[in-house]
Amino acid sequence: MSxxxxxxxxxxxxxxxxxxxNSRAKYQSWLDVEAALARAQGELAVIPEEEAKxxxxxxxxxxxxxxxxxxxxxxxxHGFVPFLKVFVLACGKxxxxxxxxxxxxxxxxxxxxxxxxxxxxxxxxxxxKDILANLAxxxxxxxxxxxxxxxxxxxxIPITYGYKVATWIxxxxxxxxxxxxxxxxxxxxxxxxxxxxxxxxxxxxxxxQNRVAELLDMPAMEIPSRNISSxxxxxxxxxxxxxxxxHKIAEEVFQTSIEEFAEVSEGFSKGTVGSSTMPHxxxxxxxxxxxxxxxxxxxxxxxxxxxxxxxxxxxxxSNMLFDGLMTESLELMTEILxxxxxxxRTLTVNRKQMGQNANINQGIDNSEYIMMYFANRIGxxxxxxxxxxxxxxxxxxxxxxxxxxxxxQTVRQSFTENExxxxxxxxxxxxLSAKLAHDMAEKCQSVIATLE
Length: 452
Known about the structure:
Blueprint: H1 17-20, H2 23-43, H3 49-58, H4 66-76, H5 81-91, H6 93-96, H7 105-141, E1 146-151, E2 154-160, H8 161-181, H9 183-186, H10 203-216, H11 230-256, E3 264-265, H12 285-308, H13 316-346, E4 348-349, H14 351-358, H15 367-378, H16 380-396, H17 401-406, H18 409-414, H19 417-423, H20 433-450
Antiparallel strand pairs: 1-2, 3-4
Helix pairs in contact: 2-3, 2-7, 2-10, 4-5, 7-8, 7-13, 7-20, 8-11, 8-20, 11-12, 11-13, 12-13, 15-16
């Protein structure tokens, strides 16, 4: 596996994805495609139907002689022919004559990889569904939890944690939509032969490809060219964008779990060790794994773009590269999703600390609240100038914002002291944060219901 691991990886459930990506599963996927090809050709009288049935029956990985396969690898120097030869041996001389009839290596390998990727993709969607469910619960639960909104690394105006979670949900729903929309382009069947023009099969080859597509439940490529890779880049891009959404969550958790913030923390089990040197360490293990694997995943798309532009009808350099890129992308995404599901399910929110941090500037974060009151009377520009002068005086002196405001005759003429104190409380200026959190949680649950 090409993903980045640490001890935390061993505690997470991959939902069977790693087993789908091992070498034994790869060979079985090749056999599944060869079996579908034989069955389609038998039904269409391209090969004897009885022989096709025997091929289907023998297309099980346990029937392959792997020692013999390794022996042949040493001689022929081809990545697929040794597999074919041992499969022919497993089927017998007469039946073996009809294996891989009119197909080329990449027809089987690329279709098989798409078949495997489709199975992995379904598990990816199950992870996304559960992550969204976790976030919907969190958005509802923390809809009224006041915290400091931040822009450019500094306090802006107050929000609620539920609103922050709602923004994560919104982006993840976009990624889910992309993931579903790309399925029809990436999970396809190709059976066009050496260059994709059905040279050895003619018209019946198109019928065979369509039937194989039905059997594998993956649409046929309109032009089954081995040199079309844009759909693979698109899929890797979709994974990278999904990873980016989860990377953003992980970065927020990583940063705001620092002691100086102390607003959230990852779930922790007693006995977990953070450092071999420092006994006190409780590290953000889930977050750091998401961040590292996401950064590696981003790098794969640029490599794909360069290789996809290779000339002519096929190029093994591109085929080999995309075989590796697809596999690595699936492995990286698996590690990211496993961690993100547990992170969003076990995240601990420190409401008290969020409240204290929101009040750390003693009400100055609510300057817009006061400015907008004056804007309705004297216009936005003059109101901004007025409140700006007062806010900067508080920022650059040892005076509290409250005292600066109360010392202003213009302010005292507009508000009583109690009214002003209420306007400085963060909880009184969170806009529609709670409503947006609840609304997005509700929408999220509706989308999840469609994935059942």
